[in-house]
Design a protein that fits this description.
This protein is of the alpha/beta class. Helices cover about 35% and strands about 20% of the residues.
């Protein structure tokens, strides 16, 4: 593995691993020395179709030769098509397009505040969760439950109350607070350690929000577009939120975000209230439309559910005698292995074994392989990881 010298011009906002990838194909990446790696991270849940997918390549090449950008000052046909498809898949009615998950969540926060002001609430307040992650803009950083990430960027934005994740009692205590207008929550926490709530958590949240006239806003930036074995993680709970945010896997690496709404939430962002220069441009929408069509054609949502169960079963068997495993859980191809100690060094050790993984919350191995993963690659993933943990 070749050591990469630090660039003097790129800001050091990441602690980068000493490797540079030059090409990819499917679930594999090759570094600049020609060595092949199994990608069990997918660019942090982005490349659901893997790398260099032929359908994405062809669609983007054709679209780039036709039209990349015009502006949201005009109608964008591909944007209308994508909004219609997302509406059909999600059960929501309208879509605002942007470029990232943080921007999608920023739009959700503005929707909640506008909704509150329409109700004559002076300080509209959003309930957020401990160990959550919603982005790095000032508002989404405030919503994020990570004091380390927030440190040095005070004063943070007012209008948020934080409660423990998967704790309905903590929410019930707040029902008499007249300033609360919404709840913002990840159906499965990703950056906080792959935390899967109780099976009835989202249903009970939906009931509380209905009774209290709060908006239920779900951050599906990491869980959306098939990752958990459903198009959206909330579909496991058979509910529909008022707001749902997407990004990551929607464009398979082409930057695009989306904020989906219904009901009162759809009435908030009118002309002049919000916008995005690049949001929903023809190239990004072409990528997202191709992603959705490909996932449907190749039955990748169902495959994600099946392969997720397979990996969990195999890991459960291979790690059953490992006393350092605290918890093993997953939903589709979003899998977490919690250890009894910090394990950040495992990313480097796995890299030496030509496997790409991630450690989140300090002690949880996070697996987010492409949705196209099949059993031979899943077996290699499990065997390599089990040997490392042994």
């Amino acid at each position: 593995m070749k050591s990469v010298a630090m660039s003097t011009h790129v800001m050091p906002t990441y602690t980068r691993l000493p490797i540079t990838f030059e090409k990819g194909q499917g679930v594999w990446l090759w570094d600049d020395q020609g060595k092949r790696y199994l990608d069990a991270l997918s660019g942090i849940a982005v490349c659901g179709l893997g790398h260099a997918h032929e359908g994405i390549q062809n669609a983007l090449a054709i679209q780039a030769g036709r039209l990349i950008h015009t502006s949201n000052l005009y109608q964008v046909g591909l944007q209308e098509n994508l909004a219609q498809k997302l509406s059909h898949l999600s059960g929501l009615d309208h879509v605002f397009f942007c470029n990232s998950g943080a921007e999608a969540n920023e739009a959700a926060i503005k929707i909640a505040r506008s909704y509150g002001h329409r109700l004559d609430i002076e300080i509209p307040t959003i309930v957020v969760m401990e160990n959550s992650f919603h982005g790095r803009t000032l508002a989404t950083l405030t919503a994020t439950g990570n004091p380390t990430a927030q440190k040095g960027f005070e004063p943070l934005v007012e209008g948020f109350i934080r409660v423990p994740f998967d704790d309905i009692d903590a929410l019930n205590v707040l029902r008499k607070n007249p300033n609360i207008v919404a709840v913002l929550v990840e159906p499965v926490q990703g950056e906080g350690g792959v935390n899967i709530p109780s099976k009835d958590y989202l249903k009970r949240l939906r009931r509380i929000c209905d009774d209290s006239k709060w908006l239920l806003m779900l951050d599906e930036v990491q869980t959306g577009i098939g990752r958990t074995g459903r198009w959206f993680a909330y579909q496991h709970a058979e509910i529909i939120p008022d707001v749902c945010t997407l990004a990551k896997a929607l464009g398979n690496g082409v930057p695009i975000g989306a904020c989906l709404t219904r009901g009162e939430a759809s009435l908030q962002l009118t002309a002049g209230k919000h916008g995005s220069t690049f949001g929903g441009n023809p190239l990004a929408c072409c990528a997202a439309l191709t992603v959705i069509d490909t996932i449907k054609q190749e039955n990748l949502v169902e495959q994600a559910a099946e392969m997720g169960r397979y990996i969990i079963d195999r890991l459960s068997d291979s790690l059953k005698n490992n006393n350092h495993i605290v918890n093993l859980q997953g939903l589709g191809l979003m899998i977490g292995i919690e250890l009894d100690r910090p394990c950040g060094e495992l990313t480097q050790k796995a890299l030496k074994q030509q496997l790409l993984i991630n450690v989140t919350a300090g002690n949880t191995i996070r697996l987010l392989p492409p949705l196209i993963l099949k059993k031979p690659e899943a077996d290699l993933l499990v065997d390599t990881l089990s040997n490392l943990l042994a």
